Amino acid sequence: MFIGREKELSKLNQLYNTNVFQFPVIYGRRRVGKTALINEFIKNKEAISFTGLESTVSQNLENLSKSIHLFLGSVGEAPIYPTFQSALEAIFKLAENKRIIFVIDEYPYVAKAYKSFSSILQTLIDKYKDTSKLYLILCGSSMSFMEEQVLGYKSPLYGRRTAQFRILPFDFKESRKYFKNFSSVDMAEIYGIVGGTPQYLLQMNDALSVEDNIKSNILDPNSYLFEEPSNLLKQEVQKSALYNAIITAVATGSTKLSEIATKVGEETSACAICLKKLLALGIIRKETPFSEKESKKTIYSVNDNLFRFWYRFVPQNLSLLQNDMVDIAYKSISEGMNTYMGSVFEEICKQYLWDINRNGQSKVVFTSLGRWWGTDPLKKVQSEIDIIGESDKNTALFGECKWTNESVDVKVLDLLIERSSLFHYQNVHYYLFAKTGFTKGCVDKSQELGNVTLVKYSDIIDYFDN
Fold this sequence. Notes:
The protein is built from 22 helices and twelve strands. By secondary structure, the protein is an alpha/beta fold. The chain folds into three domains: 6-166, P-loop containing nucleotide triphosphate hydrolases (Rossmann fold, 3-Layer(aba) Sandwich), CATH 3.40.50; 172-341, Arc Repressor Mutant, subunit A (Orthogonal Bundle), CATH 1.10.10.10; 344-465, Trna Endonuclease, Chain: A, domain 1 (3-Layer(aba) Sandwich), CATH 3.40.1350. β10 (395-402), α20 (410-420) and β11 form a beta-alpha-beta unit. It starts with 5 loop residues before the first helix and ends with a helix.
């Protein structure tokens, strides 16, 4: 089942139809759907597909030779090319008179096994690019390698690519396409649990309740997702124990570098190096208050929902799970679910705002969107605003998101208006987002003010469905 990626497919096909040499680079975290995208693109097209192995030079050369042999439709045992250069040159020559796609998946494995591979590719690209019809795709999951050794200016391949695609997890709107039977609230929780990574979404079963999905897919030590966060870290980093400790610290509320270092018992410099790697992998994100540059207010949060959910709830319940006490472990999770979903709902609301902004339906056409926290100078207390979107120095929107079963009261609107006065925009519009709805007092006040938009979660779903 292939879902989404319409823009990427359209661009790949647009490049394909030029009928001249093209060299797109596709990269992104593991499980995000890169190979599925490539397979959908090359369907019904002439293509040589070669997947690199974390193995020896000879094993990779043998596999490349077999891929060429398979493409040619030759019978008998595949002859092994004497060198990578001879094998690659044969592919370039095959594409001199007809369009051929050549995919190298898991490129970092090949390039690490044979250090000269990128230089050989560079030489052949420079030699044939003006006459060749080859459509060369390099794909890789190692984010740092692809960005530094393929896209980076120190790479032999620098400047040769004709396009690049960083494949990201799906947003909430796209993730919903995987399911037909979850209620809208269940779907928000499923997104909060596994995020938009296709391979993780495929583990969820919409014939089951959210509770049963959590128990069978997250809390069961034998399930795929139970081991996934630690397995992925082991593939991407060394000293995964420290990374595990850092993610756990962030997921359970230690958001500043100093707090994280104290929680894991390491120097801040060591933690900073790990956080940089986790940022590159898309597991952690770094934030500063809206409109403020790098400062002491910088905080870290878990960006990937599966990692955020897993590290928030599984480590603290590990003893229970190992002793087959799943129901007791789930009880503590269910009690914290509404609180956990607060930031997930904020993210859904931001995605909604960006969508209506693109479609010209936002009350404020903003160019940036974020959140703010800091000190209220009048009350001398810490304060925060869920969403701020700026159009220009005079115009902005302010938003507040509430994932609770109670209707949002006028006090929430009053507080948002009060906090917005900490900024000095002349033209302001307010968005209130609620899981269920709003009290009559809140509705009346918003109508009276005229610059307030009330959005129920069901309104967001209706918008995404249209």
